[in-house]
Amino acid sequence: MTATIDSRLADKGVNLPNAAAPAANYVPFVLFGSMLQTSGQLPLEGGAIGVSGKLGEGVSLEDGQKAARLCAINILAQAKSALGDLEKIGRLLKLTVFVASAPSFTEQHKVANGASDFLVEILGERGRHARSAVGVPALPLDAAVEIEALFEIAQ
Fold this sequence. Notes:
The chain contains 3 helices and 9 strands. It is α/β, with parallel strands linked by helices and 155 residues long. The protein has one domain: CATH 3.30.1330.40. It has a 5-stranded mixed sheet, with helices on one face. The chain has a two-stranded antiparallel ribbon with strand order 3-4. Strands 5-6 form a two-stranded parallel ribbon. Helix 2 (61-83) crosses helix 3 (108-123). The longest helix has 23 residues, at 61-83. Pfam families: YjgF_endoribonc. InterPro entries: Endoribo_LPSP/chorism_mut-like, RutC-like_sf. Residues 6-145 form the Endoribonuclease L-PSP/chorismate mutase-like domain. This is Enamine deaminase RidA, house cleaning of reactive enamine intermediates, YjgF/YER057c/UK114 family.
């Protein structure tokens, strides 16, 4: 892939929002050495939760994947806020995906693909990452998904 991250976002019709401000006593990201760790990002769309509720209890797999994609967009917004330029991303190392789930829901990994697929499309090989997908009983603001990311910063 020779196109820039910004041009791939534009090709997908994605305009990064302003990075979300913390909702409590934490910072939105931490830079340490050659690493960037984002705090968990919710599926915000237009400043509000875009997908709420629990997977397997009123929220479809497709809506869960949409929520994960929204989280990924917000992760990139935080990365841009932290780094100033998305081209400074050396590699996405890890995503941790939290899925608000009914007790019987077991497809968290498929929900997480909404973020993983999008980030590989946008970042190319730099977007291939390790991942955990975990079901939880509830998330802040009744969000369906929350995702945090760890990046290596290009040297």
